[in-house]
Amino acid sequence: MGEDCENVAREINFIADFLARRDVDEPIRADAVIACACAPPLVLDAVREASLLSPLLLISGGIGHSTESLKQRVRERFPSIPVEYRAEAEIYRDVLTGEFGVDLSKILLENRSTNCGENAWESQRALDRNGVSPQSILLIQDPTMQRRSHASFERAWRGRDVRFISFAPFTPRLENDGTLEPRGQWSFSRFLSLLLGEIPRLRDYGPAGRDFIEHVDVPERVIEAHNRVKEKFPDFSQR
Fold first, then answer.
1. For the residues 57-85, what does the mean pLDDT come to?
2. Strand pairing class (32-36; 136-140)
3. Nearest Cα to 59, choosing from 123, 138, 131?
4. Cα gap 174→6, rounded to integer Å
5. What is the pLDDT of residue 206?
6. Alpha-carbon distances, residue 229 vs 115, 136, 148, 193 (angstroms)
7. Considering Cα of 229, then 231, then 232, then 233, what sign does the dihedral take?
8. CA 26 and chain centroid, separation
9. Mind listing the pLDDT tens digit for each residue in 35-47?
10. Residue 210 pLDDT more than 80?
11. Average pLDDT, the chain
12. In this structure, are residues 167 and 20 in contact, taking their beta carbons and an 8 Å threshold?
């Protein structure tokens, strides 16, 4: 890999480090775990591990832009799990209970949300309907969306006595030979479009978050890295 490609990989990894928010190095016990259903297979493994430590797991996800990718991953890994015409949360539940042995009685579903902001609001409503008011929530999401999801949940719960603890299941790395690690989570084009799409969302929502998210300080160094990668891959800046 040439020097220019190594520089681009360095910038991509810098952005990935910022987006994959991790407040803890491994799952910890909380009053509840909220898992936003998404396509990368390793997220499911992290949700299983986290569910063993906490009394309640809420899975959030209707049908959105990642649903087809999730269905394909589940078909490949767990062919006995039905995926057609089903919400992401329902697919996650069946994998976790049927393949990983997670106790069904500790799971709540939110199957209405279609995007990151709705994950937060609909999760809050689902907990309210069930009379649950956790004071600590371990939040698990696609690593490229972890920081924005955290800001979305903080906005939805504004004024409530709750602490969100972000746990991105892994931090993606682009190696100097062009390999995306860990392997098998996204295609490179999908990963790059996710990565480049996040920084404008975090910035364009502005200091007040346009009522979608709480304000996120995006370091100038991250903005510079985003601009350099966007120049290199102009066709991947939207998703």
1. 96
2. parallel
3. 123
4. 9
5. 47
6. 25, 36, 20, 11
7. positive
8. 16
9. 999 999 999 999 9
10. no
11. 93
12. no
For 230, what's the count of Cα atoms within 13 Å in the CB-facing half-sphere? Answer: 16
- The two three-digit tokens of residue 140, written as one number: 């698990």
pLDDT in tens, 90-111: 999 999 999 999 999 999 999 9
CA distance 164 to 109: 19
Quickly tell me which residue has 């120049």 as its tokens: 231
Global confidence as pTM: 0.94
Q: What is d(CA 61, CA 115) in angstroms, rounded to the nearest whole number?
A: 8
Six-digit token pair at 14?
């810098």
Say if residues 32 and 132 touch (Cβ distance below 8 Å).
yes
Q: Tokens at residue 97, please?
A: 């209970």
Q: What are phi and psi of 197, to 5 degrees?
A: -75, -25
Residue 10 has pLDDT above 90, yes or no: yes
Closest CA to 233 of 28, 80, 4, 27: 4
Q: Residue 164: which of 155, 154, 172, 174 has the closest Cα?
A: 154
Q: Where are the beta strands (DSSP E) in the chain?
A: 32-36, 57-60, 107-110, 136-140, 163-166, 173-174, 180-181
